[in-house]
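Materials and Methods. Structural model of DNA 3'-5' helicase. The 726-residue sequence of DNA 3'-5' helicase from Kushneria konosiri was retrieved and submitted for structure prediction as follows.
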Amino acid sequence: MRLTEQQQAVVQHGQGHARVFAVAGAGKTSTMIARVLHLMATGTPADRIMVLMFNRAAREDFAARLRLLAPAGARLPQVRTFHSIGHRLGQSLMRWGALPARRLIEGEWQRERMARQVLQQLLVDEPAQLALALEEERIETLLQFCDLVKSECLPPARLYEQGDYGADTEHFVPAFLEMERLMQEQGVMTYADLLYRPLRALIRDDRARARIQGRLDHIIVDEYQDINEVQLRLLSMLAGSSASVMAVGDANQCIYEWRGARPDAMNARFGELFGTPTDYPLSWTFRHGHAVSLMANHVIRANPGAADQLTLSAPDNPDTQVECDSGGRHLVEVLQSWQAQGRDLKECAVLVRSWSLSVPVQLRLLRENIPFQLGQQDRFVFRLPLVRALAGYLELARRPELLQDSDHLLLLYSQPSAFVSQDRLAPLTAELARTGRWPEQHIVLDGLKPFQRRHLKKRWALIQTLPAMRDQAPADLLSHVVETLEAEKLLRRAAARRDKGEEDIRLLDVLIEQAGELADDPDAFIALLKDPVINQEQGVLLSTIHGAKGLEWPLVALAGLNEEDFPLYSRENPLTPQALEEERRLFYVGITRARERLLLMSDPAPHRLSRFVEEVAWEDSVKLARAIVSRQGGAPGVRDPSLANRYLEGIGVEDSLRASAGQKTPAVLSQAGDWRPGEQVRHAVFGEGRIELVEGDRERCVLEVMFHRAGRRRLIASRAPIERVG
Ligand SMILES: Nc1ncnc2c1ncn2[C@@H]1O[C@H](COP(=O)(O)OP(=O)(O)OP(=O)(O)O)[C@@H](O)[C@H]1O
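The predicted structure was written out as tokens:
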């Protein structure tokens, strides 16, 4: 494989800090490996180079590839993750006496147990709030909050103010502080401490800092856009004044804001930490065809702060086919024809914005007998507690004898949450199953608030009436349960984060909608919901887009492209401009996973088509890609000739095609001559900048341009893909 000029430039970067803006599929790993080999070949000792990868899998892949390509027997640099660096630093600091020794709590259950203990102390006088706080998902959110305090390096009260935490979460800050105290007392720490504790020790201890700094000349960091504040600060500590940092990433793919990552890490924040870097674009993707690159360029442009770099498809890439369709039928046909062509279902992925949107896909694939596996096992629709409970309500309507089954009654009381702990509910449901009557006096009911008692009784009344409704359609029955229990209100209240509550409500809607599709066969619907299907490894992968980070498949379908589903928002939880930008980056990541086929799937009315399907300009992109590949005639008229022309210039197609693409609305493309200092220009690769100097005559005019992101460049005006802006 021959590296491109852009890749070569990165490999041969000299001294000083650098940023590498790599679009999706740009061959980052190959470039970084070549860079490491170049540094070694030009005399940098291996132990003065370090490569930091985002996770263990990426680290292992990188190390294995480096071993293969390095000269036999050569010493190799360290390839690490931030966590492994934190771990090692922590051990050294403990040995030097700069940090008290602590043992890592490895099991999540141990942390959960500690959280329960703390909550029981804190909320001893508030039984209703305690029951709520002890719900599994709320504990999970509390623990995430505790981790975020450390990854954002913020005081807990500040973080709590900034975060979108729902009602009844006021205990988060005191719970954090109490857990910290307990951990100190017990001499233990969490994974988040692996970075946080060494960082704090290094900030306060000059001698320890002096001991770790000065050992490295080069640090190369992959997926830089997704690293958070504690990682950034630790990196700057490690670099000190001796090491050059090379940040490799794509701010447009920053999708972990909820974990503390900021798209700004590669922009202004880099400058704050390291000063002015040299910038390199890696604009060529080796993954997909022009249609997807054009779509990616179209959609990301709608983000005001987005980098102005274009993604360009390399000449030998697959010519990705793009389709847009509504309803799930087409997906089934596509998958069946994929198999009929002798292709493997393992080459296919269905990606969703959030798990609830995968439910219709899961149900449809089950009905059609198409094997699938889930990126996260516990997200099997049948394992979700809410789905299991709702299936239980439907089943009771068909099988009245379940009224005498205490486990079944407990299931019906568990979701949506009745805000009473399982320990209390179990004796109550046992009594109900035994007597079939509501006990006005029961030890469990003592000590509950009046609203809790009222709710438990109301649920029992509903449960009793269900067998009489056996002939109703499942969708009507489910709607009746949801309305009687005021399930939406309960779900919203039970969620520790607003977006989680909205996700559960969406799941309710999706299930009722799906039940409607199977109106003629209620038993089949119940069987489907209760079916003990297991992951089928040979099947299509269903994953969230977050889970698809860094991956690619020959066939990718994006499901649930509806307004309010993607971008995700609701009347109660409206979109902020910042959230919309992150949603758009997520969409950008989703479409750029495809190699050969990309399917954009929305749902029929009353759903409304996602705005992203409009923004992505897929029809124009497909038309233009076809014209580029066939190289026949002029390019078709498109909505945005300026972007189309920048793209055509970028990939270097011949003039005839370029000219006709611009015919509809003549775009001003790099005319020779008449350039003046001070003019704003846009370059297909370097983005926008300002002309500082104009040299030479009209024919051989050379421009010196200061690009906002790519720094100062000298360009031959007649050959450079530039246009005036403004
Ligand atoms: N200069 C090149 N010419 C042809 N193919 C290339 C070139 N550089 C990289 N590739 C191909 O692109 C694909 C992705 O490359 P690589 O594994 O280095 O990138 P990655 O880091 O996994 O991907 P990404 O850039 O999405 O993070 C590989 O198949 C690789 O062979």
